[in-house]
Design goal:
heterodimer; A: two-stranded parallel sheet; 2 strands; about 65% helix; about 0% strand; B: Elongation Factor Tu (Ef-tu), domain 3; Rossmann fold; 4 domains; six-stranded antiparallel β-sheet; 9 helices; oxidoreductase (chain A); oxidoreductase activity (chain A); EC 1.14.19.- (chain A); FA_desaturase_dom (chain A)
């Protein structure tokens, strides 16, 4: 994706500053309506969700005590995976956004919640709520775009190391909770500086994160398996916990990729964001920088309603159970102002996001210009680019772009 | 998930128990064991104090007695004391204090009697919408408005409106004993009208049985009580120890009256809501109590976020997105009023009514709407 300002057709060129402020006012009105009607029904929803999740987790862990029997292992592992997903997505993520702070219940509050994840609530609230939600999809500012380790935009110069990016992305997906913890700490940046230069904040946060990881690992891989020792189910329980964490990681990674990464979601240049971005301008950036997953109620629940990513990014502090309710009105607003409401079923969005990961792991234009017929030449070209020096790469890149341009002209002429 | 740790008492049983607890805690982290146990038994010993509504008994059209089964942690009370109650109204937890209207009961239940006041969010909810089975949050009983032991020979009790609630607790307790007390009690019970008088029948029955002398005064038939008439209503006034509870006007007049006659008086005042939010953009004085703020006071206007105002005053404040999204700047407001700069919504904190930790506010989008005290 090229940042919006460098595209030949800017999708918001038709909006006047007045239009943008009008969008802001209309979205504020939707938000206010939800705030005004927020009450008992919503409180009952989140309390029920918390109770269901806790019962499910306990029941699954109890079942795993007998996990020497394969059916018990399967049931316990499925239950634990679902419980962990609910805890992280519909409960933890949303509680930490302050979606339920209005209830004034100290047990369900953004300042006291700690989640079943390697990253600490404090670290997550900083990197996710503050950085990602404020600077959504601004290349170089929003680390959610590739978590600082991936090429997420054509404008980022290609380097051979990016060829490995589909593999890294997959490994990151499997161990996503640790990836998040590392990125909350800005681990890469901090590790690359001399020890004595690292900030006190980093040292404190790193210590807290390590303690959290130790507690999490002790629970899943020592204490709960040990409780199953009397039935001889130590190893099956350990495997079940590992599997549940893996499932949760893969699932949450997929959902999060779908939120901002599918083809067609806009990214922004740091310098294109005005110094004093108005609320309307901020809203529009959120509208263009997010993508929804369409699907059933169960799908919305299991994604923590991040399937309503657009609505979530517009109103991060509204209770998650209300996103589905406001979605049709938000969609109508997109249509009214001629904006693209990016929405597709999960498999399609996941495929699209992965397509982008693969496409950008390769030099600009390479995937586009490769056909079965010219594959050998193209592979040879890629080999040259991967092994050659910077000058060779630049020359090859120019050739690729020329090829791509020619192809586009031919297609246009044929049509 | 914050829960006060149980006090650690050395000893073998304790050590084994705390070791087991540690294992259980490590099996459920990041939850605490109490969070898990709460799912099954919210009223167990060691849980945060709560109570389940057992019965809601209408007293008058606008008042009701709520009978509660308190959690095992309930430490008991003396009649005349009050309890802080956290009620979820429209999903929002609001705290109020109510007098306990029974002595210790054989069934272990406690009761409060609530009069719905106009626009009273919590009182109307409790009187009209509370149902058996619902849970309320509780704090331990508090208050000094209790009879001395032994109970003096002659008492005068003066109550106005719902001021009867701590007094009925005392009376029920005295008269539930197998042996009737010898105390000679006069109760002057003042109400706006006969139909608004709570516990009317019960008090009249006590009067008929000769256990108390009841003097009823209704504003609509007798006119508002002039305390100068008290000596007429209670001729042996000077021999009696007086306990009074009711509206501020009545208590103020009574204090003056008793001081003039050189008589002792014990009163209980129901805290009035003191916060008067400023209009529009008036702002107010923000006091930062706590280790970081160190008592700093800031004159903040009604359009500047408290975060900005405090930072301009040189206080190191937690902050994040500065646009109301990230919750990185949330601090507890102990008392006062702030306005949400995005939609003008008012948030008010009244000590004793809005939870022991105060009301958490986002300082980046909240401006002072009157004097407020923030813990930081």
């Amino acid at each position: 994706m090229t940042t919006i300002t460098r595209k030949p057709e800017n999708p918001i060129a038709h909006l006047s500053p007045e239009d943008i402020e009008e969008i802001g006012a209309e979205l504020d009105a939707i938000r206010q309506e939800v705030l005004d009607s927020r009450g008992e029904r919503d409180a009952a929803y989140i309390r029920r969700m918390v109770t269901i999740q806790r019962r499910l987790e306990l029941a699954s862990r109890a079942t795993l005590l007998a996990s020497v029997f394969p059916p018990a292992w399967v049931a316990g592992t499925v239950g634990l995976s679902v419980a962990k997903i609910l805890e992280n997505m519909e409960i933890g993520h949303n509680v930490m956004h302050g979606q339920w702070d209005w209830m004034r219940d100290p047990k369900i509050h953004s300042t006291t919640w700690e989640w079943d994840n390697a990253s600490t609530a404090e670290g997550w609230k900083h990197s996710h709520n503050e950085v990602h939600h404020t600077y959504t999809n601004i290349v170089g500012k929003d680390n959610d775009l590739g978590y600082g380790i991936m090429r997420v935009d054509e404008d980022q110069r290609w380097h051979p190391m990016y060829l490995g990016q589909p593999l890294w992305n997959f490994i990151n997906a499997c161990f996503f909770e640790y990836g998040i913890a590392a990125y909350d700490l800005e681990l890469g940046k901090n590790l690359s500086m001399p020890k004595e230069k690292r900030s006190e904040t980093f040292k404190r946060n790193a210590k807290n994160t390590l303690r959290k990881i130790r507690k999490q690992a002790t629970k899943d891989y020592v204490v709960n398996p040990a409780l199953a020792l009397p039935t001889g189910a130590f190893l099956p329980t350990l495997a079940a916990n590992f599997t549940a964490n893996l499932v949760r990681n893969l699932w949450s990674h997929s959902v999060i990729m779908c939120g901002h990464f599918p083809e067609g979601v806009e990214t922004f240049e740091k310098k294109s964001i005005p110094e004093n971005e108005t609320r309307g301008e901020w809203y529009v950036r959120q509208m263009l920088g997010s993508a929804n997953i369409s699907g059933s109620k169960l799908m919305h629940l299991m994604t923590g309603n991040l399937s309503h990513q657009i609505e979530h990014h517009l109103f991060p502090d509204l209770p998650s159970n209300r996103y589905a309710e406001v979605a049709p009105r938000v969609k109508a607003l997109f249509a009214k102002h001629g904006l693209n409401y990016h929405e597709a079923p999960l498999p399609q969005q996941v495929a699209s996001a992965w397509h982008k990961v693969v496409r950008l792991s390769l030099p600009n234009g390479w995937l586009e210009t490769t056909t079965p017929a010219n594959a050998p030449q193209q592979l040879a070209l890629l080999w040259t680019m991967a092994t050659g020096d910077r000058r060779t790469r630049r020359a090859a890149q120019a050739r690729l772009e020329q090829l791509a341009r020619r192809q586009r002209t031919e297609v246009a002429a044929a049509a | 998930m914050t829960t006060a740790a149980a006090p650690f008492v050395p000893g073998r049983g304790r050590t084994l128990r705390s070791a087991l607890r540690r294992v259980a805690e490590s099996a459920v982290t990041p939850l605490e064991l109490d969070d898990v146990l709460d799912v099954f038994h919210p009223l167990r010993a060691g849980a945060e104090l709560r109570g389940r509504i057992v019965q809601v008994l209408p007293e008058t059209p606008e008042s009701a007695t709520i009978v509660l089964k308190p959690g095992r942690a309930w430490a008991g009370h003396v009649p005349g004391q009050y309890v802080r109650v956290g009620v979820d109204v429209e999903g929002v937890r609001l705290w109020r204090t109510y007098s306990l209207t029974h002595g210790p009961r054989p069934d272990g239940c406690i009761s409060i009697t609530v009069k719905a006041i106009p626009d009273g969010v919590v009182s109307n909810h409790l009187v009209h919408r509370a149902r058996a089975g619902q849970m309320l949050q509780l704090a331990q009983a508090e208050g000094e408005f209790v009879l001395p032991q032994p109970v003096p020979g002659k008492l005068l009790l003066v109550t106005g409106g719902s001021g009867i609630t701590p007094v009925i607790g005392m009376l029920r307790n005295l008269h539930s004993k197998a042996v009737a007390p010898t105390t000679d009690i006069v109760l002057v019970h003042v109400n706006a009208s006969e139909s608004a008088a709570i516990f009317r029948a019960e008090l009249r029955a006590l009067h008929a049985a000769g256990r108390i002398r009841l003097v009823e005064r209704f504003d609509d038939t007798h006119g508002v009580l002039d305390v100068a008439l008290l000596a007429e209503l209670v001729p042996d006034l000077d021999e009696r120890l007086t306990y009074a509870c009711g509206p501020a006007g009545l208590l103020d007049a009574l204090e003056q009256h008793h001081a003039d006659r050189g008589l002792d008086l014990t009163t209980e005042r129901f805290r009035p809501v003191l916060v008067a939010p400023a209009d529009g953009e008036a702002g107010g004085t923000v006091t930062l109590t706590g280790p970081t703020g160190g008592g700093t006071t800031i004159e903040a206007d009604g359009t500047t976020p408290i975060l900005d105002a405090a930072e301009q005053a040189g206080v190191l404040m937690p902050s994040g997105c500065r646009m109301g999204i990230c919750m990185g700047c949330v601090l507890p407001m102990r008392a006062g009023a702030v306005r949400d700069l995005r939609n003008g919504a008012l948030t008010v904190a009244v000590p004793g009514e809005t939870g022991p930790q105060g009301v958490p506010i986002q300082t980046c989008i909240s401006a002072a709407a009157g004097a407020c005290s923030i813990d930081h």
